Amino acid sequence: MKGRAISFLTIGLSLVTIISCNKPNDEGPYTLSYGNPVIYLKNQTGDHIVYPTQTRAGTYSAFPEGIEIDDDNGAINVSKSETGLRYKITHTATNGDTTSTIVLLSGIQFLDKFYRLSQNDSIAFPIYNGNAVNPLPLTGSSFDDGGLANAGGCSVKTTNGQINLAETLRNGVFGSTPQNDAKREFEIEYKLNDESGKARNKIKVKLYYYNTMADVAQDLLETLNDRQSQGVFLGMNNSASGGSMSTARTTNTTAIAKPRPPCVIIIGQ
Question: Which of 177, 157, 161 is nearest to 169 (CA)?
Answer without folding.
Answer: 177
